[in-house]
Design a protein that fits this description.
Layout (H helix, E strand, L loop, with lengths): L2 E11 L2 E12 L2 E8 L8 E4 L15 H6 L3 E4 L19 H14 L5 E6 L1 H13 L4 E7 L5 H11 L5 H11 L6 H15 L10 H4 L6 H7 L27 E6 L6 H10 L4 E6 L6 H4 L1 H15 L1
Parallel strand pairs: 4-5, 4-6, 6-7, 7-8, 8-9
Antiparallel strand pairs: 1-2, 2-3, 3-5
Helix pairs in contact: 5-6
Length: 312
Amino acid sequence: MAFIDIMLKSIKLEMNILEIKEGYIDFKSYHTYYRIVNPNGKNTPLLFLHGGPGSTHNSFELLDKLAILSDRPLIMYDQLGCGLSSRPDDKKEIYNKDTWVEELINLRNKLHLDNVNILGHSWGGMLLIIYLCDYNPKGINSAILSSTLSSASLWREETHKLLNNLSPEFKKVLLDDEAGLDVDKKLLSLAYKDYTNRFIFSEPQSFDPECLSRVKPDSSVSYITAWGKSEFSPTGNLSNYEYTDKLKNIKCPVLILSGEQDESTPFQNKTMYDNLETTKSWVLFQYSRHRTYYDQNELYIKTLNDFLSKLD
């Protein structure tokens, strides 16, 4: 069976009724969970690639309003090893870029996404860059690189600079942990929390949408296998990810989005911008961290709508 619809529901969003379609798609001997907002929208779909590796589509639900504003389907899914999709942690070698690209290709085929815009956030942006540069896919109307990177080594350099904003005690425990030394776990947790609050996102508040506090299945195996144990220094199978020189191979229009306080630093995004040779633009959001679509939600949605509407 190509795919199984598990739910068709409607939600009320700012006086509009928004249709949501959810289901599973077969992939190898596994399954991929997907969610389509406004499946009958008339404009070119926008497909989202979430971060991690090991995160979920959940926080992308903050962008559901875009489906009404631009009258287009929004397609979100949980990658293999994440969320509601299969998590074959006993075969952790499957958690690599080739598998995740194959899953993306399978999803496009099964959902008949012949022409599509694709947004990749963080690791999802890396996945999108790999897909565009190494596979030369057809039918890509545009690529949106949101708070991402084209070089693992540059990411390491830039995030280590960000550690200078932390207290000496927090910086030391993070670096010691990265080096594999025994550290005070409570202090390490506090240091990671401080870094996260400064450059990634804050803990969900009671007034935040449910999608931010939703309980997620443990996806640490996929993260550690592909990226590593440290946020700042990749040691997994993505540690040799170096695509800056390949960016010139991207032919579709590209929109870069990032935040001023983002761990995907302005320098990393300028590096990507400078090496792209296609039609390109870059929006740097003020007062925004890694999850720019939360910190500047309305402006982020407007920016996406303006960009995509011109392509429609």
